[in-house]
Amino acid sequence: MPARNEEEIDPVTLHNQALMNMDEEPTSGFRKLNFLLSNPPFPKETFGNLLLLYCRYGYHDLAADILAENSHLTYHFLSQDLYDYLDAEIMTTTSPEEAHRKFDALTRSYFDRLRKLAKSISDANNNNTSSSTPRQKDDVRTLLKEFEAEVSERYIPVLMSQAKLHWERKNYATVERLFRRSAEFGTD
To answer: Is there a contact between 35 and 23 (Cβ–Cβ < 8 Å)?
Structure first.
């Protein structure tokens, strides 16, 4: 089958092709995602993925430009958590101190949420006995999945971005302190 033009490919396929080939051809991936963004309708993940990938590849200025040019999409396609993360990540090049402050605020909010989830899991486990109903066991599994998702999808990216910020400034003691502070959420 001959190669098709971007205009001929459905938006979901084009989005997925851009993501799948980012490691080998980032320029092509960025071009495809920008094409989708300028030609609605597009998958709702397109906007967030483009911003995240720009940050991943160090194009913070382009991420800031896309965010500013498409502020109307922010409220429709970015969660508050993702927006706050991107805001802090974009600031790492222009104002590292402000980025650190924003990452710290995000970390504190995640700590609070993770501690509440951990307490709920502990309470549910304490209430579970060998005579627990399948519903009670499902509730514990659901809480565990929510906790794992919160850690892996929200907390770890913020922690690693904050650590990278300090690592690049050769502030290794702070990186170690960040990792030690987060150790409670990495153990079962």
So the answer is: no
User: Burial level of 155, CB count in 10 A (0-12/13-18/19+)?
Assistant: buried
Query: Percentage of the chain surpassing pLDDT 70?
Result: 91
3-class secondary structure for 118-145?
HHHHHHHHHHCCCCCCHHHHHHHHHHHH
pTM across the whole model: 0.82
d(CA 36, CA 46): 7
* Residue that the structure tokens 């190669």 belong to: 3
Question: Each residue of 90-115: pLDDT tens digit?
Answer: 999 999 999 999 999 999 898 888 88
User: CA 40, CA 53: separation in Å to the nearest integer?
Assistant: 20
Residue tagged 């770890």 (tokens): 156
Task: Tell me whether residue 2 is exposed, middle or buried, using C-beta atoms within 10 angstroms of its C-beta: 0 to 12, 13 to 18, 19 or more.
Answer: exposed
Per-residue pLDDT tens digits for 111-157: 888 888 888 888 877 776 655 677 777 888 888 888 888 888 888 89
> CA-to-CA distance for 145 and 164, rounded, in angstroms?
27
